[in-house]
Amino acid sequence: MPRHKPGTNASHSPDLEPVAGNGLLSRRALLGRGAVIAGAMGTSASLTGAAAEPLKDDPWSLTMGNVTPALQTPSRFEKHVVRTLSNPNNELRNSHGRTPHHLINGTITPNSLHFSINHSGLPDIDPAKHKLVVHGKVKRPLTFDLETLSRYPLVTRMGFLECGGNSAPMFSVTPMQITAQAIHGLVSNAEWTGVPLSILLDEAGIDPTAKWLVAEGADSLALHRSVPVKKAYDDAIVAIYQNGERLMPGNGYPMRLFLPGYQGNMNVKFLRRLKVVDEPVMSYYEAKTYSQLQPDGKSWRFHFLQEVKSFITHPSFGHTMKGPGYYDISGVAYSGTGRIQRVMVSADGGQSWAEAALQAPVLPKAFTRFRMPWRWDGQPAVIMSRAWDEAGYEQPLRTDFVARRGQTKNPVTNPLIFPNQHYNSITSWGINAKGEIAHVYA
Ligand SMILES: Nc1nc2c(c(=O)[nH]1)N[C@H]1C(S)=C(S)[C@@H](COP(=O)(O)O)O[C@H]1N2
Ligand SMILES: [Mo]
Questions:
Q1: Which amino acid residue places its CA nearest to atom 17 of ligand 1?
Q2: How confident is the model at residue 45 (pLDDT cuts 50, 70, 90)?
Q3: Is 187 in the pocket of ligand 1 (CB under 6 A)?
Q4: How far is the CA of 177 from the centre of ligand 1 (A)?
Q5: For position 334, which CATH number holds?
Q6: Domain carrying residue 358
Q7: pTM score, two decimals?
Q8: Which of ligand 1's atoms lies nearest the C-alpha of 114?
Q9: What is the largest CA-CA distance in the chain?
Q10: Is residue 52, in this structure, part of any structural domain at all?
Q11: What span, in angstroms and rounded, lies between the C-alpha atoms of 1 and 286?
């Protein structure tokens, strides 16, 4: 394609030259040049419609508005932006709430929409009575309450939290026609504030030969997991704030273990015990539920790390394209190993790829939002994303991944519960000429 000077004619700007198949545009199109976007609109009008008409006053412009509430909630027009529940009728079993990734944007999951998994419900904990004990192979067993813990030096860090069972519907042999919320809703990202676990262990005087901790929650099943002491000293915290406010009851109020990048289940909520021991205790959740069953029938002993992953949230299943023209392809990428290095996007089912823009700051073990400018020509397209992390790990292609890790043919009573764990391969969305979006395997 011939190159033109930018600004001479928006529709022939070099920023509108395709960088990969099926209309992917240069990332430079994102650098705030409206003319480029206008050019991508093609012959149709701009995104905002015809020439501006004189404004008229709607009812809300004519009277005094509502009074400011003490605790604000989203607009009544956003009532559909909610978590989906696995146990809406309050049966005596576990309950999940899934994050609506296709309805939100940015990187921070609002506390009201952070996913939640509670194996024995939400305990109604009085923070004045809740205690955390540190004991076992230590010189000085210690007891903390929320107030004493709050007086320690606190650290704040952004971090994703993902259930090992997130994305399990992707193990289905046929693509399930469900939203990114239903597929990937068991991962969220928040700013956590708490006390580094290393400070508490040092104060207790941990036996230098001890290799493991047992963390236990105060809910009725006393969920407990073994955690390597090495991880505790690396970057673990006892979190007491979530996005600036106290933890939500469903996210561990008043205190929880936060292990950046490690399998959700190990992030013990309602934390009441840290016992220093020599060996892992092989608790129910590490020996059975969250162990990884392989196609050969064997299980991996532990699978702590949540590996590099990405998925497109916009556009995705549940959205409809509003005609040909400019779109942002956007989604989230994250890795339990560290920072996201690169995200590639394809609009032609993986035949060609272009590098997406990563929104700064790119933080370790946290969501990174990626964006890819795209001119959809109204023809069928398959969009997908693939991420790499700074340690060089790449998100596996689906065929390679399921060859190694298996698929499930079994008709399942609850289609969102699969026996397999830790899906970190690719998600593809197929768009037809009507602009309808389906979940496809490419
Ligand atoms: N005490 C306790 N801790 C728990 C759980 C629980 O049910 N009880 N659920 C675990 C599971 S399976 C996951 S994936 C994460 C989810 O954390 P969240 O509910 O804050 O999103 O918490 C883990 N910690
Ligand atoms: Mo989980």
A1: 116
A2: very low
A3: no
A4: 27
A5: 2.60.40.650
A6: 309-440
A7: 0.93
A8: 21
A9: 76
A10: no
A11: 56
